[in-house]
Design a protein that fits this description.
The chain has 289 residues and is mainly alpha-helical. The chain is built from 15 helices and three strands.
Length: 289
């Protein structure tokens, strides 16, 4: 039997109609109800997508709800203090995302009269908004048919590919261009059928989450897959601890941190936070910048 590479086989032979039937028939009972799925407000969608970057969904729900309890709209976010922003963000990690999110709010208020841009090109001019996030905002807030990938979407597409016996998958072998080509064909079919784009994406993500839990994480076969390092004792943990401590008090000392964490990780964490403008050094103590 002749075998094909994924690149040679997948796009031309992928059965879009069969895949869509599987999605629409199998995912009705798999729907995951999250608060950001009950809105099409572009700012609320933007906040959720930034929070979800590199963060598990279950960790985001309470933070998302608390965020809008304290900062109900884009204008209050733009005016908030750095301490309030970081305090509300504490626990999500990668605190620079919080400051970029606030900068997004300020720019949107100043340049776009508080209205989140509908154009993907304009969205990508905002700090921290890349290809995936801009596509997700356009799809979930404006029902625009943009192609974008994340781990659950990659999982379900590769799950379908691996069912074919004519090729063998290896880790990190599938380029995103292949998956995007398949997804583009699916989105065109969804549009032609008059179905909702954002509903399709939610179903695709939910199916991917189900596949991961049931059959394993097929996204390991994607070239862009990287295994996240352990959080415990990492530089990321130290960074989070520093910001959390400074949100609760005015300063923290080097000695306190080095008594709790590896000194090398403390140094790396501090250098990174200073470079990003989140904290500042004041002699042997640290303060919010």
């Amino acid at each position: 039997m002749e075998h094909f590479s994924v690149e040679q086989f997948s796009v031309s032979n992928f059965d879009v109609d069969k895949a869509l039937r599987e999605i629409y028939s199998d995912t009705k009972s798999l729907y995951r109800d999250f608060p950001w799925r009950n809105t099409t407000d572009p700012w609320e969608i933007l906040v959720s997508e930034v929070m979800l970057q590199q963060t598990q969904t279950k960790r985001v729900v309470s933070k998302y709800l608390s965020w809008f309890e304290h900062l109900p709209d884009i204008h209050t976010c733009a005016r908030a203090s750095k301490q309030e922003i970081l305090s509300l963000w504490s626990g999500l990690g990668y605190n620079s995302r919080a400051l970029r999110l606030q900068e997004c709010a300020r720019i949107i208020c100043e340049r776009y009269e508080g209205i989140v841009p509908r154009s993907r090109k304009e969205l990508q001019k905002l700090p921290g908004i890349g290809t995936y996030t801009s596509g997700a905002i356009c799809a979930f807030a404006y029902n625009e048919p943009y192609v974008f990938l994340e781990t659950n979407i990659r999982t379900v597409l590769i799950y379908w590919l691996q069912k074919n016996p004519d090729f063998v998958l290896e880790e990190n072998c599938i380029d995103d261009l292949v998956l995007e080509s398949i997804l583009k064909k699916m989105i065109e079919a969804v549009q032609n059928s008059g179905q909702s784009i954002h509903t399709f994406y939610y179903m695709l993500m939910d199916y991917g989450a189900f596949i991961k839990k049931t059959y394993g994480n097929f996204s390991i076969y994607a070239k862009k897959y990287t295994k996240q390092s352990s959080f415990k004792g990492s530089v990321r943990e130290v960074r989070g601890a520093i910001v959390k401590a400074l949100c609760g008090s005015k300063s923290i000392t080097y000695d306190t941190l080095e008594s709790l964490y590896d000194p090398q990780n403390v140094t790396e964490a501090i250098d990174g936070l200073v470079a990003e403008g989140i904290i500042k050094r004041n002699g042997s103590t640290l303060e919010l910048a």
